[in-house]
C-alpha cells in the first residue's frame, strides 16, 4: 500500500525542520517530498552568490521569506580581490522583488549593494522586517533613508562593518513617528552625526529595542539620555567614550547603566577615557560579550574592567591587553568561549606592546570552555602551540597570525610544523584554521592526516611544494573553503585533486604557482566548476600557457551560464577551454 | 587513468625545486652545514610573477599587500596609532576634552562670526596644510581670509604653525579661526 500522508500533514512535519541540511535531505527522499518541501521552505542560505542564479532559486522555492547570501571571497577583506570583481546584489534584489512580495529578511555579506537596491527593497516588500549588511559596500546614506522611510514594520537594520558613503546623518530622521517596531539598530560603521533628537525619539518609541549600536559621532554626554529611554537593552554599542571629566556626566551615565538589568553585550568605546569605564561596572556581572577592538585602553584599566565580568563568554580586544591582562582574564573569566586579540600596530616594525605567545598559553590554561581564538602576535614557539593544543583540545576555531611572514619558532628557529600539527592532532573538532609563521610541507601532512572535521583553511607564505597542497586536498574530508596566498603550490596538486573541488564551496589561490594551462585543463575536466582567472596584466592567452596566473578562484556552481558581470580583469574558462569575457 | 591528473609525489626537495620560484634564499642554504631546518627570516617577500602595479598595492610602503590580515576598519585604527606613537608606547590620556590621547583627537573648532562650532579629528591630518584646507572646506570660506589659532593645554591662545605638527597635535585643546585684520 503506497498511500502517502496528505500533503498538509507532511508540510506540518517539515515545518519542524529548520536546518537547511535536514530540509535538503528530506527533499531527496522522493519526488513528492521534494515538491512538498520546496513549497514550504521559507528560508535559504546561499554561501556563494555565483553558485546559483536567481532564476533557479525562484523556480525551486516560490515561497521564500528570508534570504541570506554571501558574495566576495573572504580574502577580499584584505584587499586581495581587486575592486569591481563582482558580487552585485541588484540582480538578486530585482528578481526577488517580483517573485517574493512577502519577503521579510535579507542578509548579505561582502556584496555590492546600491542605493537603487535599497530603494527597491524598501518599496517592494510590504512586510519587510530585517536588513543585515555585513561588510557590504556601494551604497550611501540616501539608500538608508529609503529603508527608514518606507519599511513600515522594520525590525532590524544592521550595517555591521559596511563601507557606506556617508552623505549626511539626515537618513535617521526619515523613520516615521509611526515606526515603533525596531528591535535592532546597528549604525556603528557610519561617520556622520545623526540628529540626536531624532535618535532619542526613535529609541524612546521603540519598546522592543534590544540592540542599539551607535556610531562614534554620538558623544558620551548624550549617551545617558539614550540609555535611560531603553533600559531593556540587551546589546549596546556606545559612541565616542570620551569627554572632559565631569562628575555629573559620570554619575548620570552610571545611573543610566545601573537601570539596564538585561544588558549582555557592550561595544563601541571609541576615544575611550579610562576614567569613564567604571560607569559600566554595575552591569559587568551580567555581561557575556565585550567588544573593545577599537578601544585603546591600557592593560591595567582593561584588567579592572574585565575582572568585574565574571560571566564573560566573548572578548574582542586590542593587544594593549598584553600578556599580563590575558593572565588576569584567564583568572577571572572561566566561562570564556571566544577570544580575539587584534594588533594595535600591525605595520610597525617593532613590538609596541608586551604581548607574546604567553598570553595565549595563559588563556588556554585558565579558560576551560575556550573554543574559538583569533590571535595576532609577533612571536610563537612550537612549545607554546603544543601546550595550547594539550590544554584546549576543544578548539573549534583557531586562527593565529604571527605578524612577520614566515616567522620561525623564536626559541629554536625551526618551522612551526610541530606546533600546528599538535593543534590539529589534539583538537579533533577543529572546523576552522588559519596558520602563519614558517611552515614546510610537513604541517600539511599533519593537517591531511588529522584535520578530518576541518571546513575552512587559510594559508599564507607556507609550504614548499605541491605535496603540501596535495596533502590538504586529499586528506581533509570536510573541507569546504580553502584560501591560499603566496605559497609555492601549483598545477600538479590542483589537477590531481580536481574532483575534490566539486565537493567544496571554493578554492582561492593568489600569488601561487598555478599556470594558465592548468586552469584551462581544470575547467575542461570539471564542467560544474567555474574557474576564474583574475589577472590584471591583460588576457592570459596573450602569454604562454605555462605562465602563472596572478589569482585563480574556483567554485562549484549550478548556474547554467557563466556570470555576465565580470570586469575586464576576470576570465572564466568554458568547458571547451575557450575563454569567456563578460 | 588520465595522465594529466596523476600526481607524481615528489619525496625529495630537489625535484620540486622548480616550483620554488620564490624561495631564492633556499638555494643559498643547500650546500651548507646548516640543516634545512634552520632558516633566517627574509626581509621582504618577493614573487617575480606578481604585478606590482596591480590595483591592490597597499599604501604601506614595502609592506606586503594584505598582510597582516586586518580589515579596513582595523587598518584605520592602526593608522591612528602610527601617527600618534613616538618613542613611548602610549601617553596617558589627558583630562582635556578629546585631545592628547593615543587615539582619536576630536577638538572643537570655531570660526569667528559663525555661531555653530564643529569638531574635527586631528588624528587624520598629517600637517597644518591638510588641517587648514579641510577646515576651510568645512566652513566654506577662503583660506586667505582667516588665520588659525589654538588654545593649548596651558590655556593660552596661540597662532598655529610655529611648532612642529606632532607637538602641536599633542598640546592643542581647541581651535579658532580668526578673520585676518589687514
Automatic annotation (TrEMBL), chain A:
<dbReference type="InterPro" id="IPR006553">
    <property type="entry name" value="Leu-rich_rpt_Cys-con_subtyp"/>
</dbReference>
<dbReference type="InterPro" id="IPR041101">
    <property type="entry name" value="Transp_inhibit"/>
</dbReference>
<keyword id="KW-0833">Ubl conjugation pathway</keyword>
<keyword id="KW-0217">Developmental protein</keyword>
<dbReference type="GO" id="GO:0010011">
    <property type="term" value="F:auxin binding"/>
</dbReference>
<dbReference type="GO" id="GO:0010152">
    <property type="term" value="P:pollen maturation"/>
</dbReference>
<dbReference type="GO" id="GO:0031146">
    <property type="term" value="P:SCF-dependent proteasomal ubiquitin-dependent protein catabolic process"/>
</dbReference>
<keyword id="KW-0927">Auxin signaling pathway</keyword>
<comment type="pathway">
    <text>Protein modification; protein ubiquitination.</text>
</comment>
<dbReference type="GO" id="GO:0005634">
    <property type="term" value="C:nucleus"/>
</dbReference>
<dbReference type="Pfam" id="PF18791">
    <property type="entry name" value="Transp_inhibit"/>
</dbReference>
<dbReference type="GO" id="GO:0019005">
    <property type="term" value="C:SCF ubiquitin ligase complex"/>
</dbReference>
<feature type="domain" description="F-box">
    <location>
        <begin position="5"/>
        <end position="46"/>
    </location>
</feature>
<dbReference type="InterPro" id="IPR001810">
    <property type="entry name" value="F-box_dom"/>
</dbReference>
<dbReference type="GO" id="GO:0009734">
    <property type="term" value="P:auxin-activated signaling pathway"/>
</dbReference>
<keyword id="KW-0539">Nucleus</keyword>
<protein>
    <recommendedName>
        <fullName>F-box domain-containing protein</fullName>
    </recommendedName>
</protein>
<dbReference type="InterPro" id="IPR041567">
    <property type="entry name" value="COI1_F-box"/>
</dbReference>
<dbReference type="Pfam" id="PF18511">
    <property type="entry name" value="F-box_5"/>
</dbReference>
Amino acid at each position: 500500500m503506497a498511500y502517502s500522508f496528505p500533503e498538509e500533514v507532511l508540510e506540518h512535519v517539515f515545518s519542524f525542520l529548520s536546518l537547511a541540511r535536514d530540509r535538503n535531505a528530506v527533499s531527496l527522499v522522493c519526488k513528492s517530498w521534494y515538491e512538498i518541501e520546496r513549497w514550504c521552505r521559507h528560508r535559504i542560505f546561499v554561501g556563494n552568490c555565483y553558485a546559483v542564479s536567481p532564476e533557479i532559486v525562484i523556480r525551486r522555492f516560490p515561497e521564500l521569506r528570508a534570504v541570506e547570501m554571501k558574495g566576495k571571497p573572504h580574502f577580499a577583506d584584505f584587499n586581495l580581490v581587486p575592486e569591481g570583481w563582482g558580487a552585485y546584489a541588484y540582480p538578486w534584489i530585482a528578481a526577488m522583488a517580483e517573485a517574493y512580495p512577502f519577503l521579510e529578511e535579507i542578509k548579505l555579506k561582502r556584496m555590492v549593494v546600491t542605493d537603487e537596491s535599497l530603494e527597491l527593497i524598501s518599496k517592494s516588500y510590504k512586510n519587510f522586517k530585517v536588513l543585515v549588511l555585513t561588510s557590504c559596500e556601494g551604497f550611501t546614506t540616501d539608500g538608508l533613508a529609503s529603508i527608514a522611510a518606507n519599511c513600515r514594520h522594520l525590525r532590524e537594520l544592521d550595517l555591521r562593518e559596511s563601507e557606506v558613503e556617508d552623505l549626511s546623518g539626515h537618513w535617521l530622521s526619515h523613520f516615521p513617528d509611526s515606526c515603533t517596531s525596531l528591535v535592532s539598530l546597528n549604525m556603528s560603521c557610519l561617520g556622520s552625526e545623526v540628529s540626536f533628537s531624532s535618535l532619542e525619539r526613535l529609541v524612546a518609541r521603540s519598546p522592543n529595542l534590544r540592540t542599539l549600536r551607535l556610531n562614534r559621532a554620538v558623544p558620551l554626554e548624550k549617551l545617558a539620555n539614550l540609555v535611560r529611554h531603553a533600559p531593556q537593552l540587551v546589546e549596546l554599542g556606545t559612541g565616542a567614550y570620551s569627554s572632559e571629566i565631569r562628575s555629573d556626566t559620570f554619575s548620570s551615565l552610571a545611573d543610566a547603566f545601573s537601570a539596564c538589568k538585561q544588558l549582555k553585550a557592550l561595544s563601541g568605546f571609541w576615544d575611550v577615557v579610562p576614567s569613564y569605564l567604571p560607569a559600566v561596572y554595575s552591569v559587568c556581572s551580567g555581561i557575556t560579550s565585550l567588544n573593545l577592538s577599537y578601544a585603546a585602553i591600557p592593560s591595567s584599566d582593561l584588567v579592572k574592567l574585565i575582572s568585574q565580568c565574571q560571566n564573560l563568554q566573548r572578548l574582542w580586544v586590542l593587544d594593549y591587553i598584553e600578556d599580563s591582562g590575558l593572565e588576569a582574564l584567564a583568572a577571572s573569566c572561566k566561562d570564556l568561549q571566544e577570544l580575539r586579540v587584534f594588533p594595535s600596530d600591525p605595520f610597525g616594525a617593532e613590538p609596541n606592546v608586551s604581548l607574546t605567545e604567553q598570553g595565549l598559553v595563559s588563556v588556554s590554561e585558565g579558560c576551560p570552555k575556550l573554543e574559538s581564538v583569533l590571535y595576532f602576535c609577533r612571536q610563537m614557539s612550537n612549545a607554546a602551540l603544543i601546550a595550547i593544543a594539550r590544554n584546549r583540545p576543544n578548539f573549534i576555531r583557531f586562527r593565529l597570525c604571527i605578524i612577520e611572514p614566515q616567522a620561525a619558532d623564536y626559541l629554536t628557529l625551526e618551522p612551526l610544523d610541530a606546533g600546528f600539527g599538535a593543534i590539529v592532532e589534539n583538537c579533533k573538532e577543529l572546523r576552522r584554521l588559519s596558520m602563519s609563521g614558517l611552515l614546510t610541507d610537513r604541517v600539511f601532512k599533519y593537517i591531511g592526516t588529522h584535520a578530518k572535521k576541518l571546513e575552512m583553511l587559510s594559508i599564507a607564505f607556507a609550504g614548499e611544494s605541491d605535496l603540501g597542497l596535495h596533502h590538504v586536498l586529499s586528506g581533509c574530508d570536510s573541507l569546504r573553503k580553502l584560501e591560499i596566498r603566496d605559497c609555492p603550490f601549483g598545477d600538479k596538486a590542483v589537477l590531481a585533486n580536481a574532483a575534490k573541488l566539486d565537493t567544496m564551496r571554493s578554492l582561492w589561490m593568489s600569488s601561487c604557482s598555478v599556470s594558465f594551462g592548468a586552469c584551462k585543463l581544470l575547467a575542461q575536466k570539471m564542467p560544474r566548476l567555474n574557474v576564474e582567472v583574475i589577472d590584471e596584466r591583460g588576457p592570459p592567452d596573450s602569454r604562454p600557457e605555462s605562465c602563472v596566473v596572478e589569482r585563480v578562484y574556483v567554485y562549484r556552481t549550478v548556474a547554467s551560464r557563466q556570470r555576465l558581470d565580470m570586469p575586464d580583469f576576470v576570465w572564466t574558462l568554458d568547458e571547451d577551454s575557450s575563454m569567456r569575457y563578460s | 587513468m588520465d595522465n594529466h591528473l596523476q600526481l607524481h609525489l615528489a619525496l625529495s626537495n630537489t625535484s620540486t625545486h622548480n616550483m620554488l620560484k620564490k624561495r631564492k634564499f633556499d638555494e643559498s642554504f643547500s650546500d651548507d652545514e646548516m640543516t634545512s631546518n634552520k632558516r633566517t627570516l627574509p626581509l621582504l617577500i618577493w614573487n617575480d610573477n606578481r604585478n606590482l602595479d596591480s590595483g591592490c598595492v597597499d599604501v604601506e610602503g614595502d609592506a606586503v599587500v594584505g598582510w597582516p590580515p586586518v580589515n579596513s576598519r582595523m587598518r584605520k585604527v592602526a593608522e591612528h596609532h602610527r601617527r600618534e606613537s613616538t618613542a613611548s608606547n602610549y601617553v596617558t590620556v589627558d583630562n582635556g576634552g578629546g585631545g592628547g590621547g593615543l587615539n582619536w583627537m576630536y577638538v572643537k573648532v570655531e570660526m569667528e562670526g559663525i555661531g555653530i562650532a564643529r569638531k574635527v579629528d586631528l588624528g587624520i591630518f598629517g600637517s597644518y596644510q591638510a588641517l587648514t584646507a579641510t577646515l576651510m572646506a568645512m566652513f566654506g570660506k577662503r583660506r586667505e581670509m582667516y588665520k588659525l589659532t589654538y588654545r593649548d593645554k596651558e590655556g593660552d591662545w596661540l597662532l598655529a604653525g610655529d611648532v612642529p605638527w606632532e607637538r602641536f597635535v599633542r598640546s592643542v585643546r581647541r581651535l579658532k579661526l580668526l578673520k585676518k585684520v589687514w
